[in-house]
Specification:
By secondary structure, the protein is of the alpha/beta class. The protein has 15 helices and 16 strands.
């Protein structure tokens, strides 16, 4: 048995429960003062407050003094595209001259540029690059993350990307949850045959991915000039029949029915939602879908911000994620996302903490083990160079994660 004790915690702040928190519950956090937490064999054994130490603390192999700092659950990153070849810094001049996301995509750039570079990259190259991203994320306080494929758009490269994620989940301290997103764009070879491309994904790639256990979720980009409502529904119906959890990229640029489809299909989450309309909001609320909002993408693109405040008022659980990718958000800093969620979404610090812990944990199928600090859950937590959540939402541009603990072990 191995045990780790964290003592002298100024404030231990955490959501509670293993369900998506919407409405009033979004802002409900437990706050324990002068707390301590004992983790045994990677699992939380006991949490105490008022200066008391958990029973058995004297047997701890490692003792960490939090020195009166804030402690929260390890952050959960609910939306990334971190496996890719190359970068896209050359698009900056195009953007400065007024080219939009879809303009660059139609010109053969954007996702399709990354697709070409990802197809050319070998397994070890992609593994090493992604491993570095995971190291950086963990140093910033993230202990569990989601990652999507979608820069292959063919059988071999999509599988290669997912195999990279599977191996990293086995070998890296980070818990990595994979999402199959073969329907991220229409590749050049299917340029005039998008329906045939959807057929290929549904009948060839998706069954193989499921049989090999390479992904738990399936996602599709339902957007103007990408995949329409009918194509998206076919893809998601096939994914559901195969046993994948469902996610939908929707309403990033135009509301063409993606959020409504997410609600109709019972998707676990709907992502982006910058341009969501009333029908989409109603569908998410009715379908119990978590809104995965991506404020750093809005920031980088100079776009509007998703109506997170309205979503909370409607009882829709809100999660906030980075959308780390080489084009529309080349940042994996979830702390910055927290700052933006407070400033641009007008979310309270308690609501922000829920949005980067338990809500994304539930949206990637890990709500039963991470996202809160409770007895019996995984010992994932962060000691912050801050006295409270207000400071985390106030300071930006600096890494305030002092120590990161994953499954009861110091990892950063």
């Amino acid at each position: 048995m191995t045990a780790l004790l964290v003592k002298n915690i100024g404030i231990l702040q955490t959501p509670a429960g293993s369900f998506p928190h919407g409405g009033k519950a979004q802002g409900e956090n437990l706050k324990l003062r002068d707390a301590a937490i004992l983790i045994e064999n990677g699992v939380i054994r006991e949490i105490t407050d008022g200066g008391r130490l958990p029973q058995g603390s004297e047997e701890a192999d490692t003792v960490v003094d939090a020195e009166g700092k804030l402690v929260t659950p390890g952050l959960v990153e609910g939306h990334t595209h971190m496996v890719f070849g190359g970068y896209r810094q050359h698009e900056i001049p195009m953007k400065l001259k007024g080219a939009g996301y879809l303009d660059i995509l139609r010109a053969g750039g954007g996702i399709l540029d990354t697709v070409r570079k990802t197809r050319e990259a070998g397994f070890e190259e992609l593994y090493g690059k992604t491993e570095g991203f995971l190291d950086e994320m963990m140093a910033l306080g993230v202990t569990t993350c989601e990652a999507k494929s979608g820069y292959g758009l063919d059988f071999d490269t999509e599988v290669k990307m997912l195999q990279v994620l599977k191996k990293l989940n086995e070998e890296h301290p980070m818990d990595v949850v994979a999402t199959f997103m073969g329907a991220h764009a229409v590749p050049d070879e299917y340029k005039d045959r998008p329906d045939d491309f959807i057929d290929m994904l549904c009948e060839e790639v998706m069954p193989y991915v499921k049989a090999q256990g390479l992904a738990e979720f399936a996602d599709i980009f339902t957007e103007d000039s990408v995949f329409n409502y009918a194509q998206s529904k076919r893809y998601l119906e096939r994914a559901k029949a195969l046993g994948f959890g469902l996610k939908v990229h929707a309403d990033e640029i135009e509301a063409i029915g993606g959020s409504q489809l997410a609600g109709e299909m019972g998707a676990v989450s709907c992502e982006h939602l910058i341009s969501i309309d009333e029908k989409g909001l109603e569908a998410l609320a009715k379908g119990g879908v978590t809104a995965m909002c991506l404020p750093a993408t809005s920031f980088y693109l100079g776009a509007d911000f998703a109506p997170a405040r309205k979503m909370i008022e409607l009882g829709i659980p809100v999660a906030a994620a980075s959308d780390f990718n080489p084009g529309s958000c080349p940042s994996l800093n979830l702390q910055f996302v927290m700052n933006l969620a407070c400033i641009k979404y007008k979310m309270l610090p308690e609501e922000v903490l829920t949005a980067v812990t338990v809500n994304p944990a539930c949206a990637i199928g890990r709500g039963d083990r991470v996202g809160t600090l409770e007895k019996g859950k995984q010992g994932d937590l962060v000691i912050w160079d801050a006295p409270d959540m207000d400071m985390l939402c106030y300071r930006f541009g600096s890494n305030l994660a002092l120590q990161v603990i994953k499954k009861g072990e110091l990892v950063s």
